[in-house]
Specification:
By secondary structure, this protein is an alpha/beta fold. It contains 11 helices and 11 strands. The strands form 3 sheets. A 6-stranded mixed β-sheet has the order 1-2-3-6-8-11, sandwiched between helices. Strands 7-9-10 form a 3-stranded mixed β-sheet. Strands 4-5 form a two-stranded parallel sheet.
């Protein structure tokens, strides 16, 4: 399947999604919001890969939402007096939010590799991923404040999982840039690389390491970490106990131990396709 807003290649159990509008600074146009969750859902549901890596082209990772999407407003231009404006706006925002929620809902890890600037909706996107990596020249900025709005596609509920509250508020209120070293110091990104080539090599190595593990165990880790993040310790302990009681697979465990002892890659089953 081909897509207008990005390129997709699947090799060695890794799906690589590459934003492909460098001339537009990889601004997220209408096609992107429809295509991305469709691609992620297809990869996951049909067990086409064990890891997803998202990267970009050109000097800017993502300039945020394409302004052409905003020019026509939500309904009848920008007429907020239209009787159904509020309902239409709510529906539109939820549609955009669901695009990045697809990262959390899929069973496999999503890794993002950021070069240069990451603006607005780009921050919405990267905060929904499992892990984030960037180049030395990268920076992150919540630019919505500079156009008189509050970021609403996912930054605020997620960035607090990665940054101290005071820093998140500062970024939100000022729109200032957080550069790579600062992002690394607070844990927003896992690692900083010299340039994009070095970053993609490093991120693909991490993705390959994950893809070589038991997909069922990786899925369990993803589900349990996300659940634990959003719930108290008591509930999270109950969840992981229930998960292992339901999904722990002795065959996969034995294969993992034999592979480790024999210093070879494990021969693990792919996740089942979802109907």
């Amino acid at each position: 399947m081909s897509y207008q807003s990005f390129d997709l290649a699947i090799e060695n159990q890794i799906a690589h999604i590459v934003l492909n509008r460098p001339d537009k600074r990889n601004a997220l146009a209408a096609d992107f919001w429809a295509e991305l969750p469709k691609a992620v859902g297809d990869i996951d549901a049909n067990a086409k890969a064990r890891v997803i890596v998202i990267s970009s082209t050109g000097p800017i990772f993502c300039a945020g939402i394409d302004i052409s999407m905003l020019a026509g407003g939500v309904i009848d231009g920008n007429d907020k007096n239209h009787p159904t404006y509020g309902a239409a706006f709510l529906s539109k925002v939820k549609y955009l939010q669901d695009t990045f929620t697809s990262f959390e809902q899929c069973r496999i890890p999503v890794l993002v590799a950021v070069q240069g600037g990451c603006y607005g909706a780009g921050v919405d996107m990267i905060t929904a991923a499992d892990m984030r990596y960037c180049t030395q020249d990268a920076f992150f900025t919540i630019t919505e404040i500079d156009v008189g709005m509050t970021a609403d596609v996912g930054t605020f509920p997620r960035i607090l999982n990665h940054l101290p509250e005071g820093i998140a508020r500062e970024l939100a209120y000022t729109g200032r840039k957080m550069h790579a070293d600062e992002a690394k110091s607070y844990g927003l990104v896992n690692a900083v690389y010299k340039d994009q080539d070095e970053m993609l090599t490093g991120v693909m190595e991490i993705a390959a390491t994950i893809a070589a593990k038991s997909p069922l165990a990786v899925m369990g880790c993803k589900k349990t970490i996300t659940y634990g993040r959003d719930h108290n310790t008591k509930d999270a302990l109950e969840q992981i106990a229930t998960w292992n009681a339901s999904f722990l697979n002795p065959t996969e465990m034995m294969e993992a131990m034999h592979a480790r002892a024999q210093k070879r890659l494990g021969n693990f089953k792919d996740l089942p396709k979802m109907k």
